[in-house]
């Protein structure tokens, strides 16, 4: 039940111009539902994965006048333990930035294997069921759920009030990633696929991050309306800054997880040392592969590779500026099942990036449309190193690409633009 500290503003009931170039909507322009429940296993203060994007979406709804509640886990990602100060449950019900956050106990998936993930998700989602049964969180007319996990999508449907609407947001297609990355056997993948099809077909509409993801869900047997809404960013908080006085820097920032294919970055760094000895490769993050990556870098003798922890949220903009060129590696077999949200944050910061992706993938399509970054073939680290060196050695080209990326974000991926599309879906209008 929302506490008295939630501050509400009445939404303005006028629709902005359909031409975003002539009238960019602000949050106060967007008609929004009176109340909203967001069901997601990741949320603030988790600094990577889906959490930043979902946090920004929830706070945008709250700022626009929606009484917003988030049902989530005690924060633990991308590490393998609950954050300090949260394990005792003292912060299980907390209002931050106008959003009531209701947290549940979980067991973080140490090691990242299928069994650990199932325990993590099972404990958390059993708690979701108990929350509804006890009335701690009631049914809502407007519900957003996030996959991962598909269990969040399945259970979110129970929180929808009669006559309400449930929109499922798919950031990862778990059956595809599990199969592509060799997590679990064929029977496990088949079971996840069946759960995805059933849960998603009970939602009123589904949001994916790219056209390839839409195609995968349609092939899976999902028949509900599927909308493509790209990842978004707070373009006021993340904006272009002058580069600091530092060596030429290629920056990766995010989770150290299997699906990122970070071994490609270490191999790339080896080639970059020969092409551009003065450049450094900064790997900023944490996660299950951290020690493995550090050991491999040491064994390879990569003196140009530096590891750092993720920057805190209040330093995100400055931290983004430290990358002259950013890195967005992906394992090719999983590229159709997920879209890296970090790409949009990099574009908002006015920096180019180099990605590993296949022709026809979401990033390859965006690169052709925007011209703000470079794509190189997966598992070809020398090609990646050559692309990074080309941008580091040509600041004028990198700056021009950064400007194109920032312009695209302002038209397509700001908080207000994306909030408007989600609000339309929740209110039963065309997005």
UniProtKB/TrEMBL annotation:
Annotated Gene3D superfamilies: Glycogen Phosphorylase B (3.40.50.2000)
Region described as Disordered: 1-28
All copies of domain Glycosyl transferase family, residue ranges: 241-408
GO MF assignments: glycosyltransferase activity
Domain Glycosyltransferase subfamily 4-like N-terminal: 49-231
Highest taxon in the source lineage: Bacteria
Entry-linked CDD domains: GT4_WbuB-like
Pfam families associated with the record: Glyco_trans_4_4, Glycos_transf_1
Keyword tags: Transferase
InterPro entries xrefs: Glyco_trans_1, Glyco_trans_4-like_N
UniProt keyword Ribosomal protein, yes or no: no
Classification via PANTHER family: GLYCOSYLTRANSFERASE
Annotated protein name in UniProt: Glycosyl transferase
Organism from which the protein derives: Azospirillum thiophilum
